[in-house]
Amino acid sequence: MKKKISFAKFDAELNTDCCDPYNNAELTLTLRMGFKQINPSGGADKGTYHDYGDATEPTRKIIKWTATSWTNWKTNFVSSAEAFWTGKFWLINDSGSFPFTKGTATYYPNVWCRFKLVGNESTVAGNHHTIDVVRLDPSESWFGSHSTLYDSKDTNSVKKATTSAGKKVMQRAHVHEVGHLLGLDHVDVGKPHCPAAGDTNAGMCYGVADADKLAVMGSGMQLRLENAYPWREALRAFALEELMMAAMGNPLLLALGRVSLSMPVASITSVWPAKMQRHYPRTEAELRAGTMITARPKRPL
Length: 301
What we know:
The chain is built from 6 helices and 15 strands. The chain is an alpha+beta fold.
């Protein structure tokens, strides 16, 4: 089974055709980004552009994009951001969803989280987000970017903070920004020093404690389990859809509560907890016992 759901921020595809006792279902989030060149005015080779695109802010030197530099930058952006976010999480099937049969046994797959980033021109229809991009002059080391305005050096690793021990906290800004496009907030949003109703771009929202500064949604590059949120919420939509289809087949089952484990009655409330280690599909007995399978015997020859 391959099913797709389109959300405002991305498209999601759930693939269960790949399932067997050694392979989980796969959930791929596809994000289509449209990039638009910002060049010096009047067709000039060199010029300036204001930080944040705001005429009240300082200007930085920019240079004209060439066909080669534009293609190379987009390719690097897409490949490196995609590599960072794809294949890092497994969502644990705690609802008995998506059962499949192999031989005489019924298995319940977990879900491997994958990510696909498509880099288009801004004129292509169907982009989820459109981003303006300036090409900085080599002499410039900093530019005021924001959520829809990037610069050509955002793919570089740069110092974003310092730990309490004086160590540099390095980050590639484009990886952080893709996290935002997927729906993730800054690491400390919701804490007293960074209320969700306040300015969530304030410095303290990027992390006060060292561990938070090092997070990718802080000032660093470390993934956290909570970064699986976009996949988890998309998966809950698929699981709920399966539940509703099962109910339509026999609506009295849900009303009477006579539903077997193979019908995902827990899908509405299941949290699909995230792990950063591969967990194998479970049999019904293993699922009932709450057994986590991180190793299976080798496949028979």
